[in-house]
Amino acid sequence: MGELIDQYFVEHLAISKEDAVMVHQRYYKEYGLAIEGLVRYHKVDPLEYNQKVDDALPLDDIISPDPNLRKLLEDIDKTKVRLWLFTNAHITHGLRVVRLLGVDDLFEGITYCDYTQKQLLCKPHPAMFEKAETEAGVISMEDCFFVGKHEPYHLYYARMTKLTGEADDSHLNCRHAQARGWATVHRLEPEDPEPITRAAKYQIRDLEELRGIFPQFFKEKCTHLVKQAQL
Predict the structure, then answer these.
(1) How many Å apart are CA 104 and CA 169, to the nearest integer?
(2) What is the pLDDT of residues 184-201, one digit of tens each?
(3) DSSP state, residue 188
């Protein structure tokens, strides 16, 4: 995706590739989303950007159904947890990704960055977290659980009136979730170096570790099997 974004900067801002990379990184760090800077300073049409960047990605060649992820989600006790999607992408991209992963039918709704709005709202802006809480029906931030990791998709679970987030792409977003009072887990890839400063209370390298961190969210027989495997 980075290359498509940089190319969009080059073509629409008439700048060099080196400057495009620099501006792209600056907007991402300042606003959490490159398109926010483009709209704010260059009057770019977000929907055109979405069509030429996010929706242009060859995701069918990159993402395939993930049976392990599906099993993990299916093992969550739906009497205790609501499943929800939370993404900085526009709705078309967010839904496309979870469809390719084969888990789109397991979620009740989605909170996304709405590219049709005049003012874009995305993580880590506090109002984006507020939007997610409202749309997922959260009552107390103390009941929120956020799991962030480097992946091209964004998911989160909501426990009845209790929220759980999964799969975010930013150390910064985890820090903001933690500061907001959400119980936060930062998921690293196996090859990722240990961060100098932890982003969250919990840190994992495999989503299966969530079963041990939040056993109360999983069906009893699944929790029992995890305990047996640990013996």
Answers:
(1) 19
(2) 989 888 888 888 889 999
(3) P
